[in-house]
Design a protein that fits this description.
Order of helices and strands: EHEHEHEHEHEEH
Number of helices: 6
Bound molecules: 5-O-phosphono-beta-D-ribofuranosylamine
Largest sheet: 7 strands, mixed
Strand order of the largest sheet: 3-2-1-4-5-6-7
Number of strands: 7
Strand content: 15-25%
Helix content: 25-40%
Distance between the termini: 11 Å
């Protein structure tokens, strides 16, 4: 525990493109005044992202970035993150790939949650592929973001048993529920290892 004394707050930005249920769970978990992990802002490439509403509920900043030109968009994001003294970026259903340049500028400080037991089932339509392959287990993974999609160092995983009657939809629901526990836990782990 002594190790933690003197560690400053971790200013965190969460990037979303849609519902933002992971964002909501992070906000709930870290809304405690004494928490060293501070969710400072929500960023989205999609102005209609449902999750943006949590900016109001939790009284934090939101930023919408037009992604027509990726390089310009990323420049804007980097500037915004710097201005807001952001230390850590959490991707939570953010549907844009980040460039090498962006990842380098934020090296080691971008993490993502993916709904499979990585390294299995990287990419999209995870649950459909898992069900089609008649897997017995799936789950979710929090990992560092590297140049290759869903391939960075794993921080934490949670295994979920698949029932015979499960469909992609029911599995996705089950796993999402676990994601909501796993993401905050993974952040605590990062913090404890600082
Ligand atoms: C989650 O399943 C996450 O693992 C994936 O995208 C989904 C986002 O869901 N990367 P939500 O927007 O947090 O509800």
């Amino acid at each position: 525990m002594a190790k933690l004394i003197g560690v400053k707050n971790i200013n965190t930005a969460v990037f979303i493109s849609g519902t933002g249920s992971n964002l909501k769970s992070l906000l709930n978990f870290f809304s405690n005044k004494n928490s060293k992990i501070k969710i400072r802002l929500i960023l989205s490439n999609n102005r209609n992202a449902k999750g943006l509403r949590y900016a109001k509920t939790f009284k934090i900043k939101k930023k919408i970035i037009d992604y027509k030109n990726q390089r310009l968009a990323e420049n804007k994001i980097l500037l915004f993150l710097k201005k807001n003294k952001i230390d850590l970026v959490c991707l939570a259903g953010f549907m844009r790939l980040l460039s090498k340049r962006f990842i380098n500028s934020f090296n080691g400080k971008i993490i993502n949650i993916h709904p499979s037991l990585l390294p299995k089932y990287k990419g999209l339509n995870t649950h459909e592929r898992v069900i089609n392959n008649k897997e017995k287990y799936s789950g979710c993974t929090v990992h560092y973001v590297s140049y290759k999609v869903d391939s960075g160092k794993i921080i934490m995983q949670k295994k979920v048993k698949i029932q015979k009657k499960d469909t992609a939809k029911t599995l996705s629901k089950k796993i999402l529920k676990q994601e909501h526990f796993l993401y905050p836990k993974a952040l605590l782990k990062i913090y404890a290892n600082l």
